[in-house]
């Protein structure tokens, strides 16, 4: 046809939309944070080419965060240690010589063998975030030292202990919201790197169907930034805010009375005679079981008697003593006007109207939007229920409420709130992950009886039921170097790692010979009083010898702590070793299944390094530790993989529950060791899941189907149903002792503190530091928060992650920023009663008006982590740790107390108070710590390598 334009053909570029990125995929477990997601490690020519999420994994289902993807940079970091090291310069100088593994382990044996034979307590063995604590504690127990713990004492022991003592499990690793059914999610103080992928996935899931999120945190970032409602609470007042919610709910009668009656100790009878030596303890029968009044008969009955209906109201009088149910005591406590919103609002930084609105929303969703699942189940009293009722309100909490000196009781208060609403272990609420739930009395008690040449008399850590379980010597002095499980910190279930170096330096309660640490950066960001701790590690006595005579340290990287060691045992990266993420320890379970996992060497090390756990196996054999040698004295385990495969904690129960040998072939749970067990895990993507039967998935503490399933797979030896402990009898036993009852008595200077803080019902008291610090002089709260892109201190050596957080400003609320005339990029001097720092500042609007904050662990010391001396982490990056002391300020009475929760010993990082002033910008953030030499030197200007041809 005339006049038509010919069609134009456009060539599309020839793009390969699915490039071949690897020759092979090796599936293992990430170690870039504590989520422990499944990863696919793509390999080319035997090298790591790419890391992505494992879509079949129960934790992350293919999702992977910035940290996980950046694992390739962690694995190839120039900061990696390369060989065993022996110090040749002064301690702290960073001057070492490389030695062989035989020489290193021979030297360690030479130092440790005499201690074991004469004074095993002279070894202090403490580990960081190693995720193999069932193994490291087993090693320490066989050595015989009472001085072992991991990092939980400065991380989140308040959360763990409060959960165990109240509901039989805690948030995060051992509990999860019912993401499928919850309609209202409320989270308190959750660090953004903790459980980040599951939380992000869960929040996305619930918001997609219209569920609401309430965030309670002084800082609106991360999870709180996507919350529908943000409560910018004043630090340290979460417990007061929670108890005001409790007040409102009880006042309105919006509590789950049936749940309280059936599944908690609200109906248990308490001795209410102030003159009785058993005042405040439970009325028990001849079998020791707590007593209730049965509504059917009006008579006493054991709490678990078949067919009873416990009464929340009835009292009982016997032998002149009136016994009242816990519910009476709760009503008296929490209906008191001191907990009314109007009474607490100003201190919490939250209006009374906001408190009332949150309480009303919690009640509305819990009771007006209750859900029902048509699932039959039978409870521990033998009653069969045709349905499962759900209160679709779920809670989650972490370090933000834990790292205060009132954190234990605050965490207990949060569990009280959950229980009143009936939202624990029900559809839509918080659910436990196996091996939890289990009550405090089902756990071991702490042990500290040390005998030369013998193993310790039992596990180091546990849950005391009363003063009789404290770790005290016959003369009443502490048996442990960190003073855990003493009158100063009776329920210190994770120990007090932050007190080990200062106590050892002071010789209080005694001197040690060797400090042995793994992956614990105590010379920098893991210590309060950082500058002081560095001094303690290098101080010498009048004899010219180091006050802490020997330090052995193991890490994968050249951290700040490395320079202070006398002997370095270099660890592998997480892609070069076997690890066991065990049901005996901190597994990867989810509410509907028990799950454990492994890491395995997807690549072999190209340096002279060994996994720390394998090094411990050999060291244990050289020291002839029971459990690590056979009867003929030969090594029992060739390495950690051998230990994982063949060790049995008791017959049929080993580190891994999957693919064990049963009577009729392979089985999961109980069974004999299987030589091919690790191969089975590798073939399955590095994990094993044992699914909970549908009828057993909720009401786990009281559901006999779950109890029997848990016995079958080896979590319990026998069913152990229990009641939630709204009223904690162990706490009351310590109070009774402080009141003068019993054979084991606290020192007089601690009696009032024990009586005031160890209340058996959740309470709130002001942070201990508030009583030592002039609030007018130091009016501002100062916090640290860990970012999603970093985990602990590792991320600041990572070439990819450093681009997200190269340095950290101090974020100031609007009125502080404006009052001092700051502009972004200005600098401030920040002063506490302990010290001062000079740092860059930035403005942040969504922040509690009395609070400043910064990212944790970004700042680095020159010479560490293979960073250049002009790296932003060492010039602008900083730590708040320099402002925090491990001891509370002097009070004029000659005594100094640990800056910790007085119940558990949790490090009170977040009680810090400061003042701020604008200053001219210095060349670098202060204090400027001198550079230390590094055994790995500095990294290249650019980090690049070619994988494949």
H/I helix tally: 23
What general outline do the C-alpha atoms trace?
globular
Beta-strand proportion: 15-25%
Helix residue percentage: 10-25%
Q: Report strand order across the widest sheet.
A: 5-4-25-24-23-6-7
First and last CA, distance: 55 Å
Radius of gyration: 28 Å
- Global structural class: alpha/beta
Number of strands: 36
Major β-sheet profile: 7 strands, mixed
List the helices and strands and how they pair.
Layout: E1 24-29, E2 38-44, E3 47-53, H1 66-69, H2 71-75, E4 85-87, E5 96-98, H3 101-118, E6 123-127, H4 133-143, E7 148-149, H5 157-166, E8 175-177, E9 184-188, H6 196-208, E10 212-216, E11 229-231, H7 238-252, H8 257-263, E12 269-271, E13 291-293, E14 300-302, E15 316-318, E16 321-325, H9 326-334, H10 341-348, H11 352-368, E17 371-373, E18 377-378, E19 384-385, E20 388-390, E21 393-397, H12 399-402, H13 407-421, E22 430-432, H14 500-506, E23 514-518, H15 530-538, E24 550-555, E25 567-570, E26 579-581, E27 593-599, H16 612-622, H17 640-646, E28 660-662, E29 665-667, H18 677-683, E30 687-691, H19 704-713, H20 729-738, H21 748-757, E31 780-785, E32 810-812, H22 814-819, E33 827-831, E34 836-843, E35 851-855, H23 872-875, E36 913-919
Parallel strand pairs: 6-7, 6-23, 9-10, 9-21, 10-11, 23-24, 24-25, 31-35, 32-34
Antiparallel strand pairs: 1-2, 2-3, 4-5, 4-25, 8-22, 12-16, 13-14, 15-16, 17-20, 18-19, 26-27, 27-30, 28-29, 31-36, 33-34, 33-36
Helix pairs in contact: 3-16, 4-16, 5-13, 7-10, 7-11, 7-13, 10-11, 20-21
